[in-house]
Model the fold of this input.
Amino acid sequence: MDKYKIDLPFIAEELVNKEEENSAFLQFITLQPGAALDDIVHALNREVSAAINCTACGNCCSTLVVNITRQEIDGLAVYLDMPVAAVKEQYIEESLAGACFINSVPCHFFADKKCTIYEGRFTECRDFPHLHKPGFKERLPGTMLHYGSCPIIYNVVEELKLKLGFRE
Done:
């Protein structure tokens, strides 16, 4: 039996089943020292990410809005060999505040559980689920939004509970 859970319906159900536990865990995390917590999360992320092939899942690509920079729009135009104006018209939405994002969920570039622009994918896509970054403690509420949809996040959080001796 595999050490980590990757069954998306199971993980989605766990979001509901562990709602109170996870709420208590969020409070528990506020008492942990940030730098030490980052070290633990980074190590767990390396371990879990090595065991779970996120490209076999792609749930993030089919459920999340992808924010992109203006430079990435230019890069996408080059990658697709299209004029920037055509790329913006076909694939990009811009908020009133000027933020840019892919205008479709699932992402236009996600087909057959694969990213069709994988080598040219956006920074936000490359970095998801952001568990390798510093500041986990501050980002945990946002990370927990994806607890029920990302096997890597789910497993890192569950392993972190064990590692820290968390009990509801």
